[in-house]
Recover the amino acids of this structure.
């Protein structure tokens, strides 16, 4: 248990300086500079009728306005395209690019959509946003200020928002994604990669590194994308959304949530390296061991109470979690164990996973 508390403290320290804060106007200018003349926002969308209207409305209400918003309709079977067309008739900065067929055999859908999005854009600065991201009106300004200061690649893991109870079941996966991904620098250590929901980069850097064509057949395109920049000597800076950038990940129901996490959880477990995996394993083992003997004695119950407090502190920067998420954390961890077992089976033995009606080879 001591190791668990120590690792938790280390994780908290590592993210402390990576939480997005409101930009102070006289602290850093929001003017376009560093070669930025035009901002292109690119959104991959496959069956996103529940999300696409919200993100387009938010983008058209930004303090710093994008010059174009390109939605790549990835052969959707719902009303995604019609909703985008409605917005494009009102504002000609909104552009729809329709992909009528599945991606080529050696491409993964999201990478294929983003690759096509870049080739249909004109911006010097590219902002890739998942369709479920919900940016506050200052979001693009904050991202621009970070890019002006740091250059390279900026990525953000958004603050998670919930509307239905089942969505809370992604709690443990969220903890692991943020704290065990090794995406936050501690001292001079380089991050393992980047987060996928929000990525900012220059057009110049994108094509110098090869863009999504280099990582076209990987499920973990976000981590590989960031690593590709690092291998090419470019800076990668990762942040937490802190309310300025939120998302509601799986509005389509518990099966969508299960499928989404199963898709990449096993493959992502070792991406931060062997040492990082061992540290994360010890950390997780502390939580799981506390579940099995929490009522064994009074002293163990106090340890369980300590775990509740640790989980509460860890989760505060990540999403709108409630008291029952902390008190009944064993349910979240047991649900995650099921996800991990299924993900491992599909990754190692079936060599394929499913996502949004497509089979992906891994």
């Amino acid at each position: 248990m001591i190791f668990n508390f120590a690792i938790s403290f280390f994780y908290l320290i590592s993210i402390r300086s990576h939480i997005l804060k409101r930009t102070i106007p006289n602290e850093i200018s929001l003017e376009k500079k560093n070669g930025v003349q035009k901002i292109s926002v690119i959104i991959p969308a496959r069956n996103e009728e529940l999300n696409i209207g919200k993100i387009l409305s938010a983008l058209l209400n930004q303090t710093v306005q994008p010059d174009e918003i390109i939605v790549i309709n990835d052969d959707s079977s719902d009303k995604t395209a019609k909703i985008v067309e409605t917005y494009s008739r009102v504002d000609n900065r909104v552009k729809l690019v329709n992909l009528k067929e599945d991606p080529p055999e050696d491409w993964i859908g999201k990478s294929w959509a983003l690759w096509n999005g870049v080739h249909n854009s004109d911006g010097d600065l590219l902002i890739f946003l998942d369709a479920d991201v919900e940016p506050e009106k200052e979001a693009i300004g904050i991202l621009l200020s970070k890019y002006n200061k740091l250059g390279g690649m900026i990525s953000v893991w958004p603050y998670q928002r919930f509307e239905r109870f089942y969505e809370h079941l992604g709690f443990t996966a969220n903890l692991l994604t943020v704290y065990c991904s090794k995406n936050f620098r501690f001292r001079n250590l380089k991050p393992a990669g980047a987060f996928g929901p929000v990525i900012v980069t220059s057009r110049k850097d994108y094509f110098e590194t090869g863009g999504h064509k280099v990582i076209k057949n990987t499920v973990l395109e976000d981590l590989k994308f960031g690593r590709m920049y690092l291998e090419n000597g470019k800076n990668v800076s990762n942040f937490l959304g802190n309310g300025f950038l939120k998302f509601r990940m799986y509005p389509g129901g518990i099966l969508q949530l299960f499928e989404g996490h199963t898709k990449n959880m096993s493959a992502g477990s070792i991406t931060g390296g062997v040492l990082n995996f061992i540290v994360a394993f010890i950390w997780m083992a502390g939580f799981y061991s506390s579940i099995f003997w929490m009522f064994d004695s009074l002293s163990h119950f106090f340890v369980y109470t300590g775990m509740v407090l640790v989980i509460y502190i860890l989760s505060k920067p990540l999403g709108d979690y409630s008291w029952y998420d902390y008190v009944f954390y064993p349910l979240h961890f047991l649900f995650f164990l099921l996800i991990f077992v299924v993900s491992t089976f599909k990754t190692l033995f079936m060599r394929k996973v499913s996502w949004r009606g497509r089979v992906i080879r891994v």
